[in-house]
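Hi W.,

Here's what went into the run:
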Amino acid sequence: MIMRHFLLHAGIFLLAAVLAASSHADRLVFGSYRAYDSALSEANRLSSLLGATVQVIDSSPGGSHAANIHRVVSLRLNERDYQSLGRRADAAGIGFWRLRPAPTRVLGAPANEDLSPVPAPRVSVEGPKGDINADRAPSHNRLLVPEMNSASGRREGNFSADDRGFGEGPALEIELQEIGEGLVLLKLRMSQSAPYEYAVGRAEVVISWPRDASVMRLKGMPTADSLRGTPISSITFAGDGQNALKIRHMPSFGVTIVSDRQAADSGETVVLKFQALNNWTLKKTQSTSDFAPAPAGQEQAMSIAQRTNLDDGQCQTQDHLLLPRAANTVCKPVGGEFLTLTAHTAYDDVNSTEQSQARQVDVVVAERPALAQEISPAQIKGVVPRPQPNEYAAAIPVPDRWRILQGLGPQSKWYDPYNQNTLKADLPLHDDWFFNVTATSDTFAEVRTVPTPVGLQSSASAGSNDVFGDYEQTAVIQNFAMEFVYYKGDTVFKPVDWEFRFTPVINLNSTRLDEILGVNADPGAGKVRRKSDVGIQSAFVDKHLWNVSDNYDFDSIRVGIQPFSSDFRGFLFQDSPFGVRLFGNRFNNKLQYNLAWFRRLDKDVNSGLNDVKAGLRDDDLLIANVYLQDMPRLGFFSEFLFAYNRNRETSTTFDDNNFITRPASIGLEIPRKYDAYYFGLGGDGHFGRLNLTTQFFWVTGKEKDGLFTGTQSDINGLFFAAEPSIDLDWLRLKMSLLYASGDGDPYDNKSQAFDAIFENPIFAGADTSYWIRQAVPLLGGGRVTLSGRNGLLNSMRSSKEQGQSNFTNPGLILYGVGADADILPQLRLALNANYLRFEDTAVLEVARATTGIDDAIGLDLSASMIWRPLMTQNIIVRLSYASLIADKGYADLYGDSNPYSFLANMVFTW
Amino acid sequence: MILAGCGGGSGSDPLDQERNQITPVIDCDGRCVDGASFLSVAEVKRVVAQAVHQANALSVNATIAVVDRVGNVLAVYRMGPFGGAVEITSTVPNSVRSGLDGVVLPQGRDGDALAAIAKAITGAYLSSEGNAFSTRTASQIIQENFNPRETDQPAGPLYGVQFSQLPCSDFAQRFLGAGVTVGPHRSPLGLAADPGGFPLYKAGTPIGGIGVISDGVYSLDKNVQDQDVDFDELIAYAGTYGFEAPVERRADRLTVDGKTLRYSDVMFSDLSVAPQDAPDLDTFDDVSLIGVTGYADAAVRSGTTFGQASSGIVPAPAEYDGLDAFVFVDQSGAARYPARDATDVDRLGGASLLAEEVHAILTATLGIANKTRAQIRRPLETFGRVTISIVDTNGEIIGVIRNLDAPVFGSDVSVQKARTTMLMSATDAGRYFSGITEPAKYLENDFVSVRQTVELDDYIDRSKALLGAQAFENGVAYSIRSVSNIHRPYFPDGLSSALSGPLNKEPTLGQWSIFSTGLQLDVSFNKILSHVLFAATGVGEDVGLSCNESEQPLRLANGLQIFASGVPIYRGRELVGGLGVAGDAPEQDEMMAFLGLYEAGENLQSGLSNAPVDLRADQLSPDGYRLRYVQCPQNPFVNSDEENVCEGL
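Here's what came out:
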């Protein structure tokens, strides 16, 4: 039936399909009317027929209904409504097409409810000028050109733009038909009512769309072979910007499609269909082969050539024949380029009036959906204007798709990361191998007060008669990190096949204390420590093993020093250990998993970087975790984790400052071994507007040598953390809750405190908070830190970097509130207030040989300001201030003072 | 459940208990001692029998000594026909032939008994109702680093305590030929670090100690990280059965700077026979009760009751009421060291200390002690229990007072400290040591030939090289802590890359060990060694009542002590005496002395106080390493979060 239908409408079909820009607030367009009343009546009819609101869009100023066109549409449809309404319309035989919000809107075009920012395609059909006078009510989805309806007789030869031949020509119908998701066919066809008596002198179809220069990549053109047997000998790009199609059949002017009189009655149809693929790929998908060449002298010619563009944003097609008013309306707001297809048909044989033809050429010009970028007006300023079609270079062969742009614009400099740059993996180094260099400078300057002991053997100054000395400290830390990545793969969709990564970090650090014996075990080292260090933070090979689904679900294996985080917030383990990790995903990325063995590297205590010279620690971590998307509800990720930490570090080890690190200088200070098994359950996501992050851990296992008992001890610790938050426009309000169990009796054979493996928590203000940022030493109770640097837990290790886990500690309870305020796009202010308590101070009391240490640590108040002048991560400046309003427990340990820290941090990334 | 090895037994056998608490827990905090707090003859025999039983099981001959809390030797038993040789050595085989290190007391003499007595006294003296320390504990806290093997950390808090309770001490009491007498008594080898000495307890209160030697080596444990199987310790530990220290009071329940102290590497469950199965002592063959020259006759005696006149420690007179004050009495019950006027009035004139001033200092210091948080006592957060001694510039003891439960070792040590700080701060300190012309003579093990002589002047010369030519003449006030800074195996203390302090022996020359500390030992060496030979052989004469051969023997009569705490006493800018405190951790004791003296001075308004700030040794920064004067502890007072209480004083 469809074939028959096409037969009846011999002519030329040009089909344009466009993937629209966005996915929400679709509208269905049922037709356009010149007369408002007609439109309204149609809208009412459709409303009742379809049981949906169908309305008339009136773009007239002040609702005067004076506009040239009134569209009958149904607005603001979500996907489900659209499907439902579409089905009903189909069932009722009502044609419609679907429009989606135009990117022009965010580009600054008028944003009223008119269809003026019509999404691609914009359609105008241009014919010989001068005969545009039709004022007929069109059918709801069909613009019938009246002149052609009334045409009779015949026309000879080619018509120039000046010709007025259409008055007697056949009806030319234009039909817009939605043929799929975001795909619109534009068909032009001649009515059977005017067989061969006419010749269309010239008709132009103008299809335009908002288009980004970057999607002007065409590939996969039909070859001569694939066109063999069709009336078309070639299809080529035309125009300066390669933005028109030229379809050629005969070597005469334009493209000639030869009619086949014999085949005409049999309903022969030639269909060339090009469907949208990525990046403007055109592909011939279907063609009938029984389209015989036209006999000599009987030719139908069609040429599609570029039509030059409109510089002033006005359509030049407003008065053309075929789509007089609509064209005008459509073209009005368009300021950009157009792809112009010129269809030029000609019939040599003007006598063949009795012969009917059925020629149908479907060309789908597909466009990749324009990205609905959220672009603010400020960002538009200074942006290079998008290239005009006539600025496009002529077709030049390029070695690969990444170099297409090179033919178009200036070459970027090697130091310019924002344009195509081989050092940034925008271009392959060779074949499919890319190279990426990232250079980061990270500068910390810190002024802090931390309880600082007077040196026992020697002191900085005379008259230091007590334990607690002057406690002001300053630290300056400079990290230069270089990351080199060499990988094989596609840059866009596919996981890389191979990846080699190497990340050396150069660290310079300087710390000044008011007392000696803090920076080194040698009192002669004075109050200042200046060190430099080079650490290797990653050095791995990643092999993409295989894909397991069409969606690129995959398995990969990664061997070497590699960053890894065990959970959402780094509560348990976040480090760059050496190891082997098998990871991948399933079910269209709804499940992600890791299966890994790591052996931790020793670290430099001053820089915190991996100390490759010191080698691997006798500490193994087996970890298996799985992340499930939309579990238990849409928008929420859940993680299930199991980790086994096996530690056998029984040799005595000292750090770079000559302080003992293993075993920790507390308790029996004997070599410890432990087997800790962690079971974790975490979640991250949102329930409606409520964001929620949760983490739960249970650690069990055995340590061979309890910290204070020296006998085998059962590990049994609990950890729970939660951070609910809610976003109010630019403001995020959040709460933080954390519980880490403490040990209530250091002398029983139960180690009931929780300790992580290597925590780096992003929680409760993270390193802007005093307690997390600062390493607070437990003075007089062992040379250990109560809570480590960049750590939350009161784990009483020698140092977070080098110490062993300690399951005999006072634990932590934290509850707090915070706010992140995006005051400006460039400026974020974060405020946090956390109240901290020990879970049980029994361990502290034993270590300090005292009793009555209160649980209450204090109120940790912090504020930080993050300024990103470029609104990117390339320049980040952060200032933060934190103060601990000491409560009774802190005073019991360190005396009555409120420590603070001020931090300035600058990160520059290239 | 772990069953006792050879003991077999049922599941309810006490040996199955995890930490071997046999006797009922009595939560003593320093006042439990009563009329029953002594070792009876039967109990002494029971202790020895249990030890012998264990030694038999191990197939070794042991020599076992039992003492009471004030050091009366109650019995010495020897298994086998004669005493084995005893080598005093820090290394096996000996590699440091210096001082007492490498001395071998020959077999057939009583060297074994001397070692056993020293170990028993150590167990008894270092312990109290608040803390039970063994010789293993002592070993841990007297080494060059604390903990041993934690390099670059300061020496043990009691570095040097091994040379206290010296046999030449004028303070320590002596065996009078028969029976028990008032204490505290001397120890033939000072305090011991060789595992195998434990305190004995009854009803939560220490009543004595047991010391055992079976291996012929009188040494120390340099590695506290491992678990030794030491026969001496096994045997002695077996002996404590039924008299064992309360688990809650043992050293391994106490921390110093967060580090747990060691008590024993063995438990009852490690014993190869159950001690309670030991037969009566008299049924053993080849076990003989021996007499030891200068310490015991061949008899088993019951111990004195601590806190009663027979022990030499009695409640102080009414003037000290409310201070938990006790004083020392002699055999006749007369107070030995009541506060009295100083004897140096001829030199100092009006600056000389008066009795009421001594009394005021003792009272104030004891007052501070009574609110000081003890570091090495349980229950936690109890008061420090110490002995406080004051000497004048002649070294005369002009006042001593103590708490009831202060560990006994602190009595002699506090006097040592008072004298040391007084002497080292004196302008004639250098001359004092230079004036001792008799060098320390290290003998070959024939005890005749001289291996090496050490001139005490050498230490002064080395000190002057570090501290300046005027060192020990220029009136710099040296607290014991200041002295300790320069009398350590390393200067600065603990730093293994450094050379020794000038008063100390040099480790890199192979001269140093805990048996050869330096000036501390050498100033008393000849007296100590001659006494050991006398006691071991019974030949010759016992030492007199001073450990040195100076023209002013009293000034350092019971030996030099080199672990804090003690401060010199000044009137204005004039040195008038020394104040020593001992019994708890050095920082605690030091604060008591420093604050006690300060407080007394404030009360008296007679110019008495600590040394003027500009005279204190912490003004010195030799080689860029500033000396310390005092170090008051963290969280100094009970039930208070006050900190930095010594600041600015």
